[in-house]
């Protein structure tokens, strides 16, 4: 009992300190962007027209850190993993308001991207980002020539990993607020769902949104294990050059790996967990090619 209390206290202190650091970074970023009052829309639009852009969007814990690091080794390209601190709160707002997503990209994010990279020499700009997944429509309007890809990872692995994080727990700045829209079939059940079920819903609702919005999906397991798939689905379409020998050197390297798991591997889940996952995620798993 005392050990559990001590662990909870440490977790709360960690979450609060992380939130303070992130808020300081966000405010500094906001000041940096808004202070450049002389930067015009025309200047930004000319910059956009002069580059190639791509955005790979996914839910967290789906290999985004690994992929951004790998693609950033491409010649003549800069590829970022969630580079803007303001994206955290922007995701929350966009989840409930597509209009806010449009305002964020139009009034802040385009300018932030331009200021962050205008002195760099590159042809291709890319992001592998789990926070802009509710901004696809706005991004596609402001970057009309950009390439977009939805990356999905096996929901059983993602849910198991998320159970070992603070996702959907009070105090987690990324997801503490998350809940179904009133039109969602799980809206009425939300208060009675346990955390495992809620994390299953989280994987389902965000991957369904990305899959049906973007219409271009690749499984993380494919690009991590098959260079030809990586070349066909990402490198060629987005104008990237990454030799196979480089891919081989990094394909097996885990990044942002989970230190320890709080629940068993999904092959050892109890009947209740299997039933819950199938009920909530089964259709989306099949739509993404994981189940027959």
What is the strand and helix layout of this fold?
Elements (H helix, E strand, L loop, with lengths): L1 H33 L6 H9 L2 E6 L6 H8 L5 E5 L5 H10 L1 H20 L6 E6 L6 H7 L4 E6 L2 H8 L32 H20 L2 E3 H6 L1 H12 L5 H7 L20 H17 L5
Parallel strand pairs: 1-3, 1-4, 2-3, 4-5
Which blocks of ≥5 consecutive residues have pLDDT under 50? Answer: none
Write the CATH architecture name: 3-Layer(aba) Sandwich
The count of domains is: 1
- Find the CATH topology: Rossmann fold
Strand order of the largest sheet: 2-3-1-4-5
Overall mean pLDDT: 93
Main β sheet profile: 5 strands, parallel
Helix content: 40-55%
Q: Class in CATH? A: Alpha Beta
- Structural class designation: alpha/beta
> CATH homologous superfamily, by name?
P-loop containing nucleotide triphosphate hydrolases
Distance between the termini: 44 Å
Number of strands: 5
Shape: globular
Element order, helices and strands? HHEHEHHEHEHHEHHHH
Q: How many separate helices?
A: 12
Strand content: 5-15%
Radius of gyration: 20 Å
Model description:
The chain is α/β, with parallel strands linked by helices and 292 residues long. The protein has one domain: Rossmann fold. Helix content is 54%, strand content 9%. It is built from 12 helices and 5 strands. The protein has a 5-stranded parallel β-sheet, with helices on both faces. α4 packs antiparallel against α5 and α8 packs parallel to α12. The longest helix has 33 residues. It is globular.
